[in-house]
Design goal:
CATH topology: Rossmann fold
Strand content: 15-25%
Radius of gyration: 17 Å
Largest sheet: 8 strands, mixed
Bound molecules: adenosine-5'-diphosphate, magnesium ion
Number of strands: 10
Number of domains: 1
Distance between the termini: 29 Å
Order of helices and strands: EEEEHEHHHEEHHEHEHEHHHH
Strand order of the largest sheet: 1-6-7-5-8-4-9-10
CATH superfamily: P-loop containing nucleotide triphosphate hydrolases
Helix content: 25-40%
Length: 278
């Protein structure tokens, strides 16, 4: 269920975000980890729905060619008239790509996006294309969440370049830490070369199973490394979270009182609190 319309911001601006020349600027958060299956898309979709439910103006930008976030927001990616691909190749204006959903606004992805990496190579300022596009929408939102693909190539670099911060979901499993050092190195590289202001928004433990020692050990290890960047809320393993995408709904709409829905509401509250209530 979606309809394409211009971005209308009818929600009151009751936050105290950063201002530029007296205007509120939205915060762009890339949800990244080059490992697949760690909960990036699940986090992006449900954090978007939870922020929307809390009255924030939120936009989800799907930069994964698989388009899982697009489907999970209830949008048929084959029918989306304009996608993030059109923005990247300059075929459409950002506002034209925005779709309104009951869970927040969405810039959809589609399969065409898998070729975007190659097309971008020939472009000037190729890492800055998404940043320039989202920059035009920044003032219309409190938060813009970018769902990154599971790699560290051009689309992820574009996302990290566009972002103010990066939120890192970490699956509570044995090899979790191994991939993290690659991501940390990429963040350092992006800071040096492309986006000096890029900060870590937070580290989120996902698929936590309190009954296993392993989950607890991984969480402890991640805390030793990232310290207070790790969110107090952990996302439990919850079957409702894995079922909801096939119904084209975030878990908040699919089963509002499930453990998964409650955890993502808590995450939204913790994130907003860390951002000074913005
Ligand atoms: N907390 C959770 N509990 C149960 N299943 C989950 C949870 N988080 C994610 N999943 C499932 O695990 C799979 C991978 O999650 P996904 O968010 O798509 O990861 P990524 O975007 O990092 O590849 C999906 O099938 C998803 O439904
Ligand atoms: Mg994903």
């Amino acid at each position: 269920m979606w309809y394409n319309s211009r971005v209308k911001t009818d929600k009151p601006r009751k936050h105290c975000g950063a201002t530029v020349k007296g205007r509120f600027m939205g915060k762009i958060i890339a949800i990244a980890n080059q490992k697949g299956g760690v909960g990036k898309t699940t986090t992006c979709v449900n954090l978007c729905a939870a922020l929307n439910e809390a009255g924030k103006r939120v936009l989800l930008c799907d930069t994964d060619p698989q388009g899982n976030a697009t489907s999970a927001m209830g949008t048929d990616k084959r029918e989306a008239p304009v996608s993030v691909y059109d923005l990247l190749i300059g075929r459409a204006e950002p506002l034209e790509a925005v779709i309104k959903t009951p869970y927040g606004d969405l810039i959809p992805s589609n399969k065409e996006l898998s070729g975007a990496g190659i097309e971008l190579i020939g472009m000037e300022n190729r890492e800055h294309v998404l940043k320039n596009a989202l920059g035009k929408l920044k003032n219309d939102y409190d938060y813009i969440l970018i769902d990154c693909p599971p790699s560290l190539e051009m689309l992820t670099l574009n996302s990290l370049c566009a972002a103010d911060t990066v939120l890192i979901p970490v699956q509570c499993e044995y090899f979790a830490l191994e991939g993290l050092s690659d991501l940390v190195n990429t963040i350092k590289l992006v800071r040096r070369r492309l986006n000096p202001r890029l900060d870590v928004e937070g580290v989120l433990m996902t698929m936590y199973d309190g009954r296993t020692n392993l989950s607890m050990q991984v969480a402890e290890e991640v805390k030793r490394y990232f310290k207070d960047k790790v969110y107090a809320v952990v996302i439990p393993r919850n079957v409702r979270l894995s079922e909801s995408p096939s119904y084209g709904k975030p878990v908040l709409a699919y089963d509002s009182s499930s453990k998964g829905a409650r955890a993502y509401r808590e995450l939204a509250a913790e994130l907003v609190k860390r951002n000074g209530g913005r």
